[in-house]
Amino acid sequence: MNRKFSLLVFDWDGTLMDSEARIVASMQTAMRALDLNPLPATDIRRIIGLGIREAVRSLYAEADEHFISRFADAYREAFLQGEGISQRLFPGVHDVLSELEATGYLLAVATGKGRAGLDRGLCETGLTPRFHATRCADESFSKPHPAMIEALMRVCGVMPEHTLMIGDTTFDLEMARNAGVASVGVSYGVHSVSDLRALDPLVILDCISALPSWLQSNHRGTETAKIA
């Protein structure tokens, strides 16, 4: 089959996994553990997608390395305990990934999560076999640095012009731009459609289930669209 893209790189949180509420609650728990006043959810939502250390630096500009390490440890503990908040894949994820794999695409993940957290999520959802390669923020530079996508392209043997990044945050789309690859945004995650649109994704999807049909029929244009 003659198609433009062969490697599809997915963000995890906010794109495949509906984990926003758990991330926000875990960040607020970490703040309380360090005797800080918890920041509102709106402030925390804007840093979802970054690695935890970069997220802490963004929230607390004067933070030193000791503070960042303590915060990161408190966050990871809170997240793994669950905060009483379940997380689940967005509707259609299993079917979409199965269809894309069967069609012959190479699938990968580039995430701000740490390796332990991603591996746990992959195992719990049964998605581990779906992905040819994965990269996490504790193995590389955090988004929006291009290192994760560059590493995935090397592992998969795919050039930038045949790679597509799918994500819900500006960090995902900036990472794609920095790596010289095209991107697709999704509207149901943590960053607004207007913010995503400013980074020129090929399309903004309202549900992940729309991805296979878009891939089949919409490789020709470069204008940003929004479809359900």
TrEMBL record:
It holds the Pfam family HAD_2. It comes from the Bacteria. InterPro entries: HAD-like_hydrolase_sf, HAD-like_sf, HAD-SF_hydro_IA, HAD_2, HAD_sf, PGP-like_dom2. GO terms for molecular function: phosphoglycolate phosphatase activity. One of its GO terms (cellular component) is cytosol. GO terms for biological process: DNA repair. This is HAD family hydrolase.
